[in-house]
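pipeline: protein-struct stage 2 | run 1193 | Pyruvate dehydrogenase (Acetyl-transferring) E1 component, alpha subunit
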Amino acid sequence: MKENRVSQTGPLTDDGLVQLLTPTGERTPHPELDARVAHLDADALRAMYRDMVLVRRFDTEATSLQRQGELALFAQSLGQEAAQIGSAHAMTARDHVFPSYREHGVAHARGVDMADVLRLFRGVDHGGWDPVAHGFHLYTLVIGSHTLHATGYAMGLQRDGLVGTGDAERDSAVVVYFGDGATAQGDVNEALVFAAVNNAPVVFFCQNNQWAISEPTTKQARVPLADRGPGFGVPSVRVDGNDVLATYAVTQWALERARSGGGPTFVEAFTYRMGAHTTSDDPTRYRSSAEEEYWRRRDPIDRLRLHLEQVGELPAEFVAQVADDADRLGERIRTEVRAMGRPSPASMFDHVYATPHSVVDAERAWFERYEASFDAGSTSEGSHR
């Protein structure tokens, strides 16, 4: 697929945006990408629809749990389901993902238990799943830092002979997710430099939801974010991030390019954060209800639902079953989160390094003595409890 030309228009333009489904569900032909979605039958599209509905229900339940005091914080993915589910369905089991902190849809598609995702937001641990088993790294809260980790991992795949062999059972690639605000971070730009000069098999997947916390994309760039890629020698493409089919096709193309030894690609999925940045944010302070309504009419789940209805492939019994599955997921999430026990305070020293470390061991020993001193002091006069 041909990469985007450098644009002279603003960062919120829809110029050059790849789209296969209109907001009202009509199929738009695309000469280069139609073949990449031709094999997606009604069952495959319904599977994507189901995933998006379940992820949104997870999002709703987690937000409610935070409001009830069961979670310390939560980062919503509301409105970004198509960008995540479409791109995740384009991956193979051999690919590896480096997420930021709101890639709940990708986590679900990679087989991570959604209750385990909330262990981080409840403060139970730093991540409740095995990254190797799921090909899905732990969430990264430091904005943009994981793009360097992803690039390094991709270079490792390259050096291990797992790229460009022509063996479909062997070749692998990396996808790293980040937001529009992260593109202003030095780490992201450094990662693009490393990836470009090393021809690393990594897809930089930028979910441009138009708001870096409370700052709009227009205060971060004067041109579309994807235009930054060519400056590093990285081909780029802009895709309608609310179109699950287009996102699937573009990501599949970028991944095949990476696995075959073609190097990195920058994908900008133009979407919208329908919810708050996190549950500590109040978006009414910096954006209008008219803007929110505009994007609500472009809901990614509604778009696929309308398409399935138009082609007669959304039976009522399927819709009812998905709604029932969502209810059961919500109930399970509530039950399991509330049942999570409190970790030992000393467990913060676990897994700091892969092997024993003398400094960490000394700090753990000091902390355990400090904790024990409270119990000893509580039985004597002058307790410092």
